[in-house]
């Protein structure tokens, strides 16, 4: 089963980080796809008290809202054994993502980088995290030499939830020992194959993490 295989894989990466450095950092994504993975990972046996978890992106909503990625993680991942993990939210209560970014940069700066694993999904339009096709923020998110680990993202158009967001930049997403793309369905697999072909990142932003050689990238699909 995909969720169990992915959970075992990520748990092994976290255990390796704990054994080598005494702590581990995991970055996960929202959406419906990772829920079975979260539930399986939460049951894995490891020293969760030394694991920090944060998000690849977040809708700028308080965690009591159902579309909050933080709410998803708290409901499905921070339970069972993983309840002992240290969770770092991206939403910090500022009025807008742009106002929240300076504080969030300071929060992210003290995490134990590089991450041991970054688990990303992919939308039907080829976006990952909150890096959307042809979005005005996309060029800034892709500047690897810029110090920013996150940036504010304007509300995407439907069918995505039309609320402002904050997203990790490519620099932050690639600051990991291993990158994982987790997706389900034949449509997503075909889109992934298209995104692996040479082309403009603005067309399929997931190319920003697929078409690079700095970090190992593993695909988990069913």
Quick tags:
six-stranded parallel β-sheet, Rossmann fold, globular, 222 residues, 32% helix, single chain
Notes on the structure:
The protein is 32% helix and 17% strand. The protein contains eight helices and nine strands. The longest helix is centred in the first third of the chain and has 20 residues, at 2-21. The protein has helices at 2-21, 35-42, 69-76, 97-109, 138-141, 170-173, 186-195, 207-210, and strands at residues 24-28, 51-55, 57-59, 86-87, 117-120, 150-153, 165-168, 179-183, 217-221. The protein has one domain (2-221): 3-Layer(aba) Sandwich (Rossmann fold), CATH 3.40.50.1360. Strand 1 (24-28), helix 2 (35-42) and strand 2 (51-55) form a beta-alpha-beta unit. It has a six-stranded parallel beta sheet, covered by helices on one side. By secondary structure, the chain is an alpha/beta fold.
